[in-house]
Structures are given as structure tokens and as C-alpha cells.
Specification:
heterodimer, A: 114 residues, mainly beta, four-stranded antiparallel β-sheet, B: 115 residues, six-stranded mixed β-sheet, five-stranded antiparallel β-sheet, 11 strands, 54% strand
Chain lengths: 114, 115
């Protein structure tokens, strides 16, 4: 069966510090991968998605970036965090082999920028 | 572009009472629709999805939703609420055109169950 991992689970970072959040999927090959941010009262905002290694699409221009160095690894990064980057970050995957796809979510990372 | 609106950011129901969570969609083409549930400090879990087969869709944990094109709605219901249903619920829409696999989520409805 497929599982999705995210770490760290919780992170407190000062403004201006770098960020690296990691997401890995097990039990499947060539998944579509997604990064979402969930801010209080604002639902889920799609940040990035990837259909393959090195293929990243950005949905929202901001100071975040994403990379996919391996088939089942998706990394969310920032060089300098802003207060507004605080939130709950969710990674998700889908098979991408049929439509409409179901997305499966990881447990999330709660980021607090102080 | 497609979108969904969830009416009521907070809904409270008594244990054993009917649960009704509202979702209205806006789409220029027939959409696919989803309901996800999020328990505290966890990721989202799929409850059910509408893929243009049956208009009444049954999901996990006793939930169901009915697609009503005339009302552009996809409301989520459960006949009898249980304490374990307390969570946040998200409606999501995907466009009909094949190849676009991005979901658009609503802002969520937090469901509280009163003992």
C-alpha cells in the first residue's frame, strides 16, 4: 500500500531564516505530487505541483520554491521566510493515470514564523 | 475557472441529529466534485467523489452527497451525527477537461458535535 510522509511535523523558525520541508511517497511510481498551504479560514491553496522529476509548476508567485530531485521526493524551500509564510503545509500525491484523480494527503507540517 | 463555495464556516449539530454541510460550485463545464475530511492536526482524507455516474454518491463513515445540476450544489449529509464526526470538511472541484488534474478547494466547514 502507498504511504506519504512529511517532516518535520512542527517547525518554528525566525523571520529571514531558510526553510526546507520534505515529502516522500512510498509504494507507487511516478506519482503526481503537490504542495498546499492551509492558512486559518482560507482553505487550501495550491502552491506547486509536479508530474515528474525536475518538472515543477508554480501556482502562486512568492518566496517559496519546490524541487523534485527523485521520483517520490518533493521538497518545499525558501531562502528567507516571511511572517506570512506561517501555516499548515500539506503534501499530496495522485496516480495521474486516470481522471478525475484522487489526491492523497500527508500528515502535514505546521510552520510558525516568528 | 471553477470554484466552490462552502456556506457556513462553522456548523454545530447535536449527537444523533442530521448533518448537512453545504457546497455550491461554479464551473463553465460539468465538474467533478469531492468532499474531504480533516481531523485535527492531520492531512485530508477523501470522503467521496462525484464523477458523473450516479448523482447520489455514498462515501465512508455513513456520509453521502447529492449532485444537483439545477442548483449547482453538492451538499454533504449524514443522517445521524456521531462524536467522531467532529472535524473540518472541504469541498473541492476539478474541471471536466481531461489532463487538468488540479483541484480547487473551498474554505472549509468546521463541524462541531454537541453531546
Amino acid at each position: 500500500s502507498q504511504t506519504i510522509h512529511q517532516w518535520p511535523a512542527t517547525l518554528v523558525q525566525p523571520v529571514g531564516s531558510p526553510l526546507s520541508l520534505e515529502c516522500t511517497v512510498e509504494g507507487t511510481s511516478n506519482p503526481n505530487l503537490y504542495w498546499y498551504r492551509q492558512a486559518a479560514g482560507r482553505g487550501l491553496q495550491l502552491l506547486f505541483y509536479s508530474v515528474g522529476i525536475g518538472q515543477i509548476s508554480s501556482e502562486v508567485p512568492q518566496n517559496l520554491s519546490a524541487s523534485r530531485p527523485q521520483d517520490r521526493q518533493f521538497i518545499l524551500s525558501s531562502k528567507k521566510l516571511l511572517l506570512s509564510d506561517s501555516g499548515f503545509y500539506l503534501c499530496a500525491w495522485s496516480l495521474g493515470t486516470f481522471y478525475p484523480e484522487t489526491q492523497y494527503f500527508g500528515p502535514g507540517t505546521r510552520l510558525l514564523v516568528l | 475557472a471553477q470554484s466552490v463555495t462552502q456556506l457556513g464556516s462553522h456548523v454545530s449539530v447535536s449527537e444523533g441529529a442530521l448533518v448537512l454541510l453545504r457546497c455550491n460550485y461554479s464551473s463553465s463545464v460539468p465538474p467533478y466534485l469531492f468532499w474531504y475530511v480533516q481531523y485535527p492536526n492531520q492531512g485530508l482524507q477523501l470522503l467521496l467523489k462525484y464523477t458523473s455516474a450516479a448523482t447520489l454518491v455514498k462515501g465512508i463513515n455513513g456520509f453521502e452527497a447529492e449532485f444537483k445540476k439545477s442548483e449547482t450544489s453538492f451538499h454533504l449529509t449524514k443522517p445521524s451525527a456521531h462524536m467522531s464526526d467532529a472535524a473540518e470538511y472541504f469541498c473541492a472541484v476539478a474541471p471536466f477537461n481531461f489532463g487538468n488534474e488540479k483541484l480547487t478547494f473551498g474554505t472549509g466547514t468546521r463541524l462541531t458535535i454537541i453531546p
